[in-house]
Structure formats: structure tokens, C-alpha cells
Please model this.
Amino acid sequence: MSYKSVLVTQRGGPEVLQIVENELRPPKEGEVRIRTLAAAVSLPDVEARYGRSPFPPKTPFSPGYAVVGTVDAVGAGVTQTRTGDCVAALTVYGGYSEVVYWPEKKLIPVPGVLDPAQVVPLILNYIVAYQIVHRSAKVKAGNKVLIIGASGGIGTALLQLGRVVGLKMYGVASAGKHPILKEYGATPIDYHTQDFAQVICHMEPDGLDAVFDGMGGDYLRRGFPLLKRGGVWASYANPRSFSGLLRLLGRVLWLNLLPDGKAVKLYGTGANYLNWKPFLDDWAALFELLGEGKINPVITAKFPILEAAKANALLESGEVTGNVVLLAGE
Model:
């Protein structure tokens, strides 16, 4: 028996994604075999394909940062998981596949009543947003925040979670995506025609409590002065190269040494991944919010898993608001 997955065969655009066939094997000790029901298509997948990362994977590799599926076999030593269980995995790589093998100790239990297409954005995009809001910035109701990159997968997650908390939100996005910002109560700022710093200085002369930065680049230099004393700049943007990471770390070190009470906090799932319990706690909270209808991931498009190249092309087009999802059997 066999299964299919999608590989990046060389650096380049979506056209380098190729379908390959793999032999189905039993899971190893401590491992489970997951039949994929849904996989996320995310910006890190695209950046990894082009090699735009401080630590890019070697080719060939299968992209896919997060999956949701059903356990169909368990290896020796697996004690807490049964066949038929609905689970998720923060895979980082390997999610564009009909079958995923994953260690039991890193599985995420998923309530079976939830829709896998809605769950899979929670595994990456929403966990980043949730932990930035509640663990990095630690904002509370009434706080004033700016979301840079507010229309993407993490941006829309921040909008929804910010509304749940009761934040006063501003969001940077292109004009065509302003309706989604307004839907969640954020004041939109068009980065094509407006200077976000001038807008915030005018609207919030006393400063912001937090900035959530998904774009990086020059935004930190231009926007850091917008924070009030005690404010937090929480960045989840990809530095895109090792030299870019070093420059960013140097700038962050300098800013955090300034005696102004402000702080820059860099967020990355890998840096936090070693402490697994907070992740499980936060996913459980997100599943509860989803089940209660308090969050509802924005999904622009759904594609079959083996049409990952089309999904990637759409994501790169800049026309996506929210998430793109791959599904089994579509």
C-alpha cells in the first residue's frame, strides 16, 4: 500500500511542488500514523520553499506546518492514543501529505465534534496569536493595540481574539481588505496611502499598549516610539535570513536596554516549543472558543491536499484574507 505527499524539489515558486508516492509503513515505537483530514497552507511554507529563512530546510522536503487527522495505527509503547482518535500536530514540515507519522508525546488532542477545516488554522495561526496576546503582551480589556499585517491568517486571528478580550484595535492592511478589519471592530490603516505612525500619533497621542508585528522590516524602527511606557512590541515576523536575524537581535537588545519601560518580544513557535504544556493549555482554550462560536477562522479557499501548488499560488497572489486550507478527499 502507498500514500501520496507533496515535495519541494528545488528552490522556487509553486511550480516546484511535486507529488510523490510513498510506501505505507507501520508506525515506529512511540509513534502514531495519522490520516490527514486537513492541513494548513501558511506563509512559513512559502518562505521555506524559497529558502527565505534563517535556517531553511534542505531540499527535497515536504512543507506543511500543521495538520489535523485521524489516528489509524499506533506503534509499540503508545499508551494514551487509540485508533480513531482525532488529533492535530504542529509538524513544521511534512504536513502536505495524505499520511503523517508523529510522536505520541507531541500529539494535540482534538474534540471530535469540531470541523477539521476550522481546527487546522488554530494549530499554527491561532496559537501564535493567542500566545502573543496572552503570554507575550499580556493585554487586557480596554488596551489599545496596533496589528501590522491584520488581514492574514495570524492577523485575522488577532482581530478575533482581540475582540474577545475587548481590545481597542488598529490594523494595517491594504484598502481592499479593510472590510474584515471593520467587521471585528478594528480601525483600518491603508499602508499604501497612509503613514501608520502619523495616524496613530493623531488617534492615540498617549501611545499604544502593544503592537503585534507580522511584517518586520522597517516597521519596528518607525513604530516603536508609538508605545507608551510599559508597552510591548510583540513581533512574529520572519527575519528571512541568518544575517537578518542577527541584525534584528541586535536592534532588539538595544531597544530593550533603553530606560523607557518599553519592551520588544520576539515570538517563534520553535523557541517556545520546548515547554509543551502551555501549548496544550492554549490549544484547549482555543478549541473551547471555537466550540462556543467566539472565534471562527476566516478561510478564503479550500483545496485537495494534492493541489497544494494551486493553494500556494493563491496565497502568494496577495489576494487571500485569512487562511487557505488543504483537505482530504476534496
Summary: The radius of gyration is 20 Å. The chain has two domains: 2-110+298-327, 123-270. The mean pLDDT is 96.
